[in-house]
Amino acid sequence: MDKRTTPIAKIFLIAVFLILYVPIFFLIYYSFNSGGTMSHFKGFTLDWYRQLFGDTRMFIIVLNTLVIALLSSLSATVIGVFGALAIYSYKRRAKNTLLSFNNVLIVSPDVIIGASFLILFTMAGIQLGFMSVLLSHIAFSIPIVVLLVLPKLNEMRPSLIDAARDLGASNWHVLSKVVLPFISPGILAGFFMALTYSLDDFAVTFFVTGNGFTTLSVEIYSLARRGISLHINALSAVLFLFTIVLVIVYYFISRRSSMKTMGVRK
Amino acid sequence: MQSKLSRRIYLIPYAIWIALFVVTPIILVVYYSFYDLDGNFSLENYRQFFTAVYLKMTLSSFWYAFLITAISLLVAYPTAYFLVRTKHSQLWLLLIIVPSWVNLLLKAYAFIGIFGKYGAANHFLEAIGIGTKQILFTDFSFIFVSVYIFIPFMILPIFNALSELNPSLLDAANDLGASRWTTFRRVIFPLTIDGVKTGCQIVFIPALSLFMLTRLIAGNRVITLGTAIEQHFLVTQDWGMGSTIAVFLIIIMFLIMALTGNRKRGV
Questions:
Q1: Does A196 touch chain B (CB under 8 A)?
Q2: Chain A partners of B78 at a C-beta cutoff of 8 Å?
Q3: A114 Cα distance to chain centroid
Q4: I need a surface site. Which of A205, B172, B208, B255 has the fewest CB within 10 A?
């Protein structure tokens, strides 16, 4: 196989990278603009950041978003791990049925999830707001956790469990000392994926959030509909930094935990 | 191996989730689709769906989704193809994925600035002598931004398919005298078709149901199935009609999944 990258390939890749990153850096660049528009860079200022950090309403919204993301991804991880263990323990037919149910929410468009959950919460009498948003975020994060944990379970050699049982381990010990440590990289990946799903979600939240409760995505939407405000640019710079930090944290934790599992494997 | 009891304990929370959040919502959507605005049972919504207005909207929604998917594929395939051949391909892949973690709304917002009347794109057009054009609120901007958003999701499965490709097959094709184009057409593409299918599925279904971009970028000029559902649920409060459109979207979704369903093949 031709392993060299030809100049055409290089130019093509550079173009794709530029297109992907230019809009993001464009936003960040204008967050330092004292001019107040995204078209003419007048002078350097940090006013937009000052305004952003002084904005208590925005602070509460950020807090809401983080609380929802953490609570929903933690709950989804717990239920998802249980789900993966259940699917793993079943044989072919039941396994495939469960997996198809699992995938429904993954392939469903956000609008459908949002609309159907709106009907569900209204009929169940759950007030739209914190609770409805939290429940829907847990609901759409569970299948992704299952999908990330299941391959790890399948990778595990059954003899590992047999060995633990032969040595007299109880069910609880097999689970906590053998199975969970082995699948921990999958659990971690699932947790982080659920976290990003929740942080990024707009459509579902937009449907099931009432008047009193707002998350970041919904707030940005209503701000953006009103037009350009460099306040959003400053916010995007902060969020971009946060994303990068999250990626780096995930990278290091996953490296450490994979090293630990290696230890167990030996 | 595992006792029946523990298996049951594992299943309980998960089964409750399936019952409450997977099965019930679909049943409720179907149920609501049979009720008109006054809460009477009727087939009125379905009759209305088959009138010219809604059929035209469905067709145009399909056409946009098709264009978005096709253009994404045209950009994503070569990108994935070249990417696999770079030295630190995993690192580059990560860099492709990072923009997809930036909040969707912020990306849309960036394009409001770039494509706006006095935005960067118009500055550029001015500079090369074409002059200021209306870019925002056109079909072009809608498709461009949608492709921009979906590209990482198309690249990922194709990249995975390409990196699983056994390089000795390419050597074999080469030894047997196949030209590079023939190798691509007869060996590489058929063997990565599953990645392409997954990518198309990941892009096409959401593209049918975009509603935020149609408002922010296309200025309500483009109405997709998603926009119509959102309109009915949150603006006109006609949940029956919204549910009817949702039922059709669900049917289309299952059809597409069946169509692009992955059959595992050898090699």
A1: yes
A2: 9, 12
A3: 17
A4: B255
Q: Tell me if B217 sits within 8 A of B142, measured CB to CB.
A: yes
Chain B interface disruption, residue of A1, A19, A229, A249, most B CBs within 10 A: A1
**Which residues in chain B are contacts of A90 at CB distance < 8 A?**
7
For residue B10, give how far its alpha carbon lies from the nearest alpha carbon of chain A (Å): 5
Domain that holds residue A184: 56-265
Q: Which residue do the tokens 């609120």 mark?
A: B137
For residue range A18-72, list pLDDT tens digits in order. Answer: 999 999 998 899 889 888 777 778 888 888 898 888 888 888 999 999 999 999 9
Amino acid found at A104: V
A82 contacts on B by Cβ (under 8 Å): 9-14
Provide the number of structural domains found in chain A.
1
Three-state SS sequence of A6-41 = CHHHHHHHHHHHHHHHHHHHHHHHHCCECCCCCCCC
Q: What is the mean pLDDT of residues B213-228?
A: 86
As a whole number of angstroms, the distance between CA A35 and CA A194 comes to 38
Report ipTM for this prediction: 0.86
Cα A156 to Cα A182, A264, B88, distances in angstroms: 7, 12, 29
Domains, chain B, ordered by start? 52-259 (1.10.3720.10)
Q: Is residue A23 part of a domain?
A: no
Identify the CATH number of the domain in which residue A126 sits.
1.10.3720.10
Global pTM reads 0.87
Cβ of A109: how many Cβ atoms within 10 Å?
25
- Looking at chain B, the whole-number percentage of residues with pLDDT higher than 90 is 40
Is there a domain that residue A96 lies in? Answer: yes
